[in-house]
């Protein structure tokens, strides 16, 4: 990179890839509704894209005049599904190793029933993620940790968060980020200054390595988070047991 001098009172700039960038770029932070993004990727039927580097994704979303200062990801573990919980725990460890702040909620299991037929079942609902996302945005705004907040969600409940940010900190920008294949929430857009989308190509370029080194050792991409081509082939069937023909036994005695 070549640093240009100051001429005629102009702000010094850095040349990179043909762009003139101000030395003091605006600070941006990425806030990710984990369940919104997770299910949007599942709908693409591209499970390998779940193993996503959110810091890299944040940098891909930002324009040249901004720099990423942090990423917050909110989600929850569901202990009723052991395989999914283990996959999410591995992903959380990988994100923490990438300096992503992970705020975890929990699931509440309760009984539910149909008022028409009386059929009963057990249901699980995720709790605290929305609150964690809203509080992290409010706390970072109060601490002046960003100039622009990029919020990845289509959940209309976060319209209250964006309204609070818009009214309490009018000098800060809000960018609504739509997950891949999803539209923007109209209520959230009422308070956002701009909008953008996560494209599938971004996800393809921002994947985590197969193995990520954490403070406690390596974590690997979960088996279920692989493409069909990457998945290990099913084990070959064991060869059939040879049929044993039963008959009369003959005793042979040798005097040699």
Structure characterization notes:
A seven-stranded mixed β-sheet has the order 7-6-5-4-8-9-10, sandwiched between helices. Strands 1-2-3 form a three-stranded antiparallel β-sheet, with no helix packed on it. It is globular and about 45 Å long. The chain is an alpha/beta fold. It has seven helices and twelve strands.
Radius of gyration: 27 Å
Structural class: alpha/beta
Indicate the mean pLDDT: 80
Largest sheet: 7 strands, mixed
Total helices: the number is: 7
Taking pLDDT < 50 over at least 5 consecutive residues as the criterion, the unreliable ranges are 1-16, 244-254
Proportion in β-strands = 25-35%
- Helical content (DSSP H or I, runs of 4+): 25-40%
Order of helices and strands: EEEEHHEHEEHEHEHEHEE
Straight-line distance between termini: 95 Å
Shape annotation: globular
Read across the widest sheet, the strand sequence of neighbours is 7-6-5-4-8-9-10
- Count of extended strands: 12
List the keywords.
7-stranded mixed sheet; alpha/beta; single chain; 256 residues; disordered N terminus
